[in-house]
Amino acid sequence: MEEKLFKTAIVGMVGRTNAGKSSLVNALAGEKVAIVSAVEQTTRNTNRAIVEDDRGQLVLLDTPGLHKAQGNLGKVLNAIAR
Ligand SMILES: Nc1nc2c(ncn2[C@@H]2O[C@H](COP(=O)(O)OP(=O)(O)O)[C@@H](O)[C@H]2O)c(=O)[nH]1
Ligand SMILES: [Mg+2]
Questions:
Q1: Which of 23, 48, 66, 79 is the most exposed place for a label (fewest CB within 10 A)?
Q2: Predicted TM-score (pTM) above 0.85
Q3: How many domains are there within the chain?
């Protein structure tokens, strides 16, 4: 029996707010899986997108990103990203 190597990687998107993380995830996925917005802190949970081709698989985790938390929403979003 032939054994085939399956490559997979998990990629965390942890750039600053409004850096274009969700836009990149959507572009790589080829469809809209994450909300893109000029309003900061629109991504409030960790969206997952899976991109596959014959080289392997990427699991993209789009997070709210890390930022200097001001108030409770910011703290919760940082915790989700971490
Ligand atoms: N000029 C420019 N704007 C971008 C680019 N990528 C995303 N944006 C815009 O930047 C804003 C924030 O994008 P988003 O993907 O939501 O950023 P996130 O907060 O890091 O997820 C949106 O208004 C996007 O349309 C880019 O490559 N160039
Ligand atoms: Mg986002």
A1: 79
A2: no
A3: 1
- For residue 31, give the CATH number of its domain: 3.40.50.300
Q: Given the DSSP bridges, would you call strands 47-53 and 8-13 parallel, antiparallel or unpaired?
A: unpaired
Query: Residue 53: inside a domain, yes or no?
Result: yes
Binned at pLDDT 50, 70 and 90, residue 78 comes out as confident
Q: Which residues fall inside 5 Å of ion ligand 2, going by CB?
A: 21-22, 43
| Residue 1, in any domain of the structure | no
Residue span of the structural domain in which 71 resides:
8-81
Task: Give domain status of residue 27, yes or no.
Answer: yes
Mutate which of 36, 61, 63 for ligand 1 pocket (most atoms within 8 A of beta carbon)? 36
Ligand with an atom nearest the CA of residue 45: 2
Residue 57 has pLDDT above 90, yes or no: yes
